[in-house]
Amino acid sequence: xxxxxxxxxxxxxxxxxxxxxxxxxxxxxxxxxxxxxxxxxxxxxxxxxxxxxxxxxxxxxxxxxxxxxxxxxxxxxxxxxxxxxxxxxxxxxxxxxxxxxxxxxxxxxxxxxxxxxxxxxxxxxxxxxxxxxxxxxxxxxxxxxxxxxxxxxxxxxxxxxxxxxxxxxxxxxxxxxxxxxxxxxxxxxxxxxxxxxxxxxxxxxxxxx
Length: 209
Description:
The protein is an alpha/beta fold. Helix content is 39%, strand content 22%. A 5-stranded mixed sheet has the order 3-2-1-4-5, sandwiched between helices. Strand 2 (32-42) and strand 3 (48-57) form a beta hairpin. Helix 5 (147-155) packs across helix 7. The relative contact order is 0.19. The mean pLDDT is 95.
């Protein structure tokens, strides 16, 4: 039914789950080191599930600050050749290409970032867009869906690992703080919460299936 179409679920927004790993907390000065994006799908019954995940190791931009404490926390060596890192513009361009394709498939007008503590990820995401001078982006520049808030409301937890555990989603702490792993787990969590809301009768608003 039309009520279940993805384009009608979030007023024309296509949700994309994003996670970044960085060399600090200042989006203007500190390096973006990893970025991953999980594309979401919706089945014919209106339930979300995880689709393709794109993942890039990113070269620090020229003049970027690298906080040692941040590198020790996420375990990233920015200059390790085995990372096969790419520049910010290439990573963003590839993500945007895939997002636009999926956005068009679901007849959505724009995409919206889904992230755990989304203000942080969005700040680095938008700073990279500004640095690379990319003029057209499929993402809304300031609207985001924060799974921290959603998990606090629906599961009583705000930490990603604890929220996943409360939802019955497996979580390996040894793989945490990787953009790839955290994005995939955040995507699973988001799908769980949105689907649970639907199962409990919260969507569609008229209660019809």
